[in-house]
Amino acid sequence: MTPVVELAGARKRFGAVEALKGVDLTIGAGELVALLGPNGAGKTTSISLMLGLRRPTTGAARLFGLDPADRRARGRCGVMLQESGTTGVLTVREIVDLFRAYYPASLPAERAIALAGLDAKANARIATLSGGERQRLYFALAVCGDPDALFLDEPTVGMDVEGRRAVLASIRALSAAGKTIVLTTHYLEEADQLASRIVVIDRGVVIADATPREIKARIPSKRISFGVTAPVGDAAFQGLPVQSLEVQDRRVSLLSSEPEQVLKALFERGVTIRDLEVTGADLEEAFLSLTSRR
Length: 294
Hints:
Layout: E1 5-14, E2 17-27, E3 32-36, H1 43-51, E4 58-63, H2 71-74, E5 77-80, H3 92-100, H4 109-115, H5 131-143, E6 149-153, H6 161-176, E7 180-184, H7 188-194, E8 197-202, E9 205-210, H8 212-217, E10 222-228, E11 244-248, E12 251-256, H9 259-268, E13 273-280, H10 283-292
Parallel strand pairs: 3-7, 3-8, 5-6, 6-7
Antiparallel strand pairs: 1-2, 1-4, 8-9, 10-12, 10-13, 11-12
Helix pairs in contact: 3-4, 4-5
């Protein structure tokens, strides 16, 4: 089966800056892939190459087996970029109808609007929408053509809790329906919840490509969290194998690769512990560990 996205030895240079340094990446049909990386790592540049918005300096990019600029490939994609804009004089329904007309087999306008959680704003002029509501509108415009592949660049930035939940639920539903989804996000808990595959880019190269579980398993440390009955200072943890420590409102959270030794020492030092939780490292901690090594 032809991959939806292929980058082969993709390099992209902007003057003296090489944003991508030979990226090889293949994304198959039906995958939900989160593309993660620090600011300036090359995530947005990678998506630009995938969509044909930019050409690789060297290497190749393919979309549905075609040149990404080919209209046959572009017509199968829905895109939500960080820098979007629409006229403020149209209503939500009017602009969704306008965008639907660009696709051969689009969704009903009501369905696209509902996927973005904008039912109550369908007849509102775009100029009256809040920042988070406009972001949801851009999501509606990305999905209204019923595309085979969705490219979502920071899709929930600026949204309130309700809007964010609605959009995340829609992304899950679209993925379950077999859509290929490529997203970037700085909300790593979103990537952990949504993605079947995590690709980490740092300084223009792919440094990790695995499932969220596999990424997190690379960090041997455990997260220890507990409450204390009396204030506890940093001195209680001196000499212990602790990689990070946070004490807030009589709640202690720390990271250690030797949780048993840490807890034993704290008991011996007279620290009274309640509501103890010991869990594996989360995706944020794994991400920070991967990128900090470089």
